[in-house]
Amino acid sequence: xxxxxxxxxxxxxxxxxxxxxxxxxxxxxxxxxxxxxxxxxxxxxxxxxxxxxxxxxxxxxxxxxxxxxxxxxxxxxxxxxxxxxxxxxxxxxxxxxxxxxxxxxxxxxxxxxxxxxxxxxxxxxxxxxxxxxxxxxxxxxxxxxxxxxxxxxxxxxxxxxxxxxxxxxxxxxxxxxxxxxxxxxxxxxxxxxxxxxxxxxxxxxxxxxxxxxxxxxxxxxxxxxxxxxxxxxxxxxxxxxxxxxxxxxxxxxxxxxxxxxxxxxxxxxxxxxxxxxxxxxxxxxxxxxxxxxxxxxxxxxxxxxxxxxxxxxxxxxxxxxxxxx
Length: 325
Ligand code: ADP
Ligand code: DP6
Ligand code: CO
Description:
The protein is of the alpha+beta class. Helix 2 crosses helix 3 (127-137), helix 5 (205-224) runs antiparallel to helix 6 and helix 7 (258-272) runs antiparallel to helix 8. It folds into 2 domains: 1-168, Ribosomal Protein S5, domain 2; 175-314, 2-Layer Sandwich (Alpha-Beta Plaits). 38% of the residues lie in helices and 26% in strands. A hairpin with an 8-residue loop joins strand 8 and strand 9. Residues 42, 44, 59, 68, 71-72, 93, 95, 99-107, 109-110, 113, 138, 190-191, 283-284 line the site of adenosine-5'-diphosphate. Belongs to the diphosphomevalonate decarboxylase family. This is diphosphomevalonate decarboxylase. One of its GO terms (molecular function) is diphosphomevalonate decarboxylase activity. Keywords: ATP-binding, Lipid biosynthesis, Lipid metabolism, Lyase, Nucleotide-binding. Its EC number is 4.1.1.33.
């Protein structure tokens, strides 16, 4: 019997990953850059044993259906191949983050599973290799291997596509990300299907590709010079462009809801009042507000009033993957 357990935190992209060049290997069209956060995470245990006749997958104490289990099985196959074994496994995972709601559960979930497999099978993969493996489960998961600011180098094949930490002189410690929970239920269009439809059908997609490198350059400059305004403006612009591409997809779709617009508007109002803060959104209606710790309380107060206390969750920069027990 081989057993391993790991914890991984979610990450939110400041420069988004949006579109795959290779679906099977999960190679992205563009580099992305994220911040790992401390408020949401996944803990996953995996046990490989000859006592199992099939893989089983428990998420939040519920045995998952065939479809969800198959996804996990295919991911486990990568590790079984690496270890040269064929043992079936039991995967027991707890999401301390709403699942499939645009809050990056696939990032923490697949990173934690990768870490658990590495430990269980004593593969001794270093963090860069672990990032490559996590990528095969969900693209954004490759960034959750590391804490703080992280860049996913798109690469050109399986070996060259992985994430790595971005040197930042602890700039991330000055920052907070306030999550406005607008809807924590499962979204209608998964990240995977949303980006596929966009790549295949959106006439705006080329516009995304044409400008994402420039945004990435600016964002890295902002980290280097600890320029919060440049960081926030670049993040906000990049996120809006990503969401713009979905409107020209066929059929068109959007992850925004009326409350998302309300939250975005409140961020703009705060800026007018002289409080520097900026928003981003992922594949879901929830809004994330980036702010310096020095202005955190104003942002918290505004959103608690506008929504409710339960809907406002504050995160700071979080750590990389950890092996537990
Ligand atoms: P999110 O915005 O939460 O990342 P996605 O559409 O990208 O939403 O991914 C959701 C999918 O990620 C789930 O349907 C499931 O397949 C996978 N996932 C989420 N949490 C876990 C977990 N703890 N272990 C394994 N897979 C997970
Ligand atoms: C909008 O990593 O969830 O959050 O690779 O298909 O599993 P798959 O998708 P996923 O996509 C994340 C998209 C995003 C932007 C980002 O996190 O960079
Ligand atoms: Co995801």
